[in-house]
Design goal:
The two termini are 31 Å apart. This protein is an alpha/beta fold. Helix 1 crosses helix 10, helix 1 packs across helix 15 and helix 12 packs across helix 14. The strands form four sheets. It has a six-stranded parallel sheet with strand order 12-11-8-13-14-15, with helices on both faces. It has a four-stranded parallel sheet with strand order 4-5-6-7, with no helix packed on it. It contains 15 helices and 15 strands. The radius of gyration is 20 Å and the shape is globular. It has two domains: 188 residues, no CATH class; 187 residues, 3-Layer(aba) Sandwich (Rossmann fold), CATH 3.40.50.2000. Helix 8 links the parallel strand 11 and strand 12.
Length: 381
């Protein structure tokens, strides 16, 4: 997926392991047909995917360490099929990020197989109902069960106030790793007080579980939609993607009428460089979370917000239970309603330089890839 935020979410795993000195390869093998293509492309044309992946890997110094297994043609690009299988024979650790890789025989023979659940509650609901993102699969349960170490972004899992079912499995907790050398603290940006964020309105249909609906960001955004009308001299800007797919589609005019500035995704964050530039030149982040994360009190924290913090950009984001694990109140603020959101905005704007300093300090303490990935490996090897 060429979107800038998704690129950073994924690349900071192989990049982070490489920065630790490990012999690391990235293999994209989802068994999905190419979805993101240039206009006019044939349905089976994966050239845009391959070109994007090649550019990213070269930019991050991994030009000979990637492969794309194309489901449409059956061909492999980057590393050869023979090279992939040779790597797997001697590999110590396999990391499946976001349950995205379908497990082949060569992956199953790697002794340590780690699954990263970046979508807590959604993953466990699908596990129980035997659903799966990937068409043609027998379900997420089968995929999860062939890993011998499970990690989740749902840091509150197992707590009495958390709604995530453990499904009888042992879950360890982790967070999004951020390669801090690639995110430098920016100088103060007081001239344009524009909090920004990037969000999907709906990334999919609501799931049903225990007789309840479990939804997306559209549900939570409505709770603070009128916020621009109660904060003065502060701009609230959003990039909105994936706006359809449900009965409650995004309507730009309604959001702008409430005072939000709606920005274009392609021109502001179409690739990983533009995405980083967009964050670096923001005043800070203001963001809601998916309803499912909030309602289940998962403890999930945004990969995107971690990058804002690393850039020294204060973050105000909806509490999903994460404030039990990462401190709120200085550089990073949790909110639960429109009033607490307003108060956090006023706090940041009146003490901005202090919050810039603390934002970066939080990233260094809680999201440093060196720390998080080392901790992960220490638990599995």
């Amino acid at each position: 997926m060429p979107a800038g935020g998704i690129t950073w979410d994924y690349v900071q795993y192989p990049l982070g392991f490489s920065l630790l000195g490990h012999d690391t390869y990235y293999i994209e093998d989802t068994r999905l047909y190419p979805i993101y293509q240039k206009p006019g492309s044939n349905w089976n044309d994966a050239s845009s995917c391959i070109s994007h992946l090649q550019q990213v890997m070269e930019y991050f110094g991994m030009k000979d360490r990637w492969a794309y297994r194309d489901e449409a043609s059956g061909e492999t690009f980057g590393l050869s099929e023979e090279k992939i299988k040779a790597i797997c024979k001697t590999a110590d650790v396999f990391v499946n990020i976001s349950c995205s890789t379908v497990m082949r025989d060569e992956y199953l023979k790697i002794p340590v197989r780690i699954l990263i659940d970046s979508d807590p509650m959604f993953t466990q609901i699908q596990y129980r109902s035997r659903q799966m993102f990937t068409p043609g699969s027998s379900g997420l349960k089968q995929l999860v069960d062939v890993h011998n170490f499970l990690f989740t972004f749902g840091e509150n899992i197992g707590a009495t106030d958390c709604g995530i079912p453990t499904c009888g499995l042992k879950w360890s907790t982790t967070r999004q790793p951020v390669c801090l050398n690639y995110w430098q603290k920016q100088t103060s940006n007081n001239s344009a007080k524009s909090f920004t964020t990037l969000m999907n309105w709906t990334a999919g249909k609501k799931l049903l579980y225990n007789g309840e609906e479990w939804g997306q960001k559209d549900v939570e955004f409505k709770k603070i939609q009128q916020l621009p009308k109660i904060v003065n001299d502060v701009k609230l800007s959003i990039i909105v993607n994936q706006t359809g797919g449900t009965e409650d589609s995004f309507t730009k005019a309604n959001i702008e009428k409430a005072g939000w500035h709606v920005l274009e995704a392609d021109s502001n964050a179409g690739n990983w460089k533009d995405y980083q530039h967009f964050i670096n030149h923001s005043y800070g982040e203001f963001s809601v979370a998916k309803e499912t994360y909030v309602k289940a009190n998962t403890g999930w924290f945004s990969c995107r917000s971690a990058c804002y913090l690393a850039a020294g950009r204060p973050v105000i984001t909806q509490d999903t239970g994460w404030s039990k694990f990462v401190p709120s109140g200085n550089g990073l603020f949790a909110f639960n309603n429109i009033e607490s959101a307003r108060d956090a905005i006023y706090n940041v704007t009146h003490n901005y330089k202090e919050h810039v300093q603390q934002a970066r300090a939080i990233a260094e303490e809680y999201f440093d890839s060196n720390k998080l990935l080392s901790q992960m490996l220490a638990q599995v090897t």
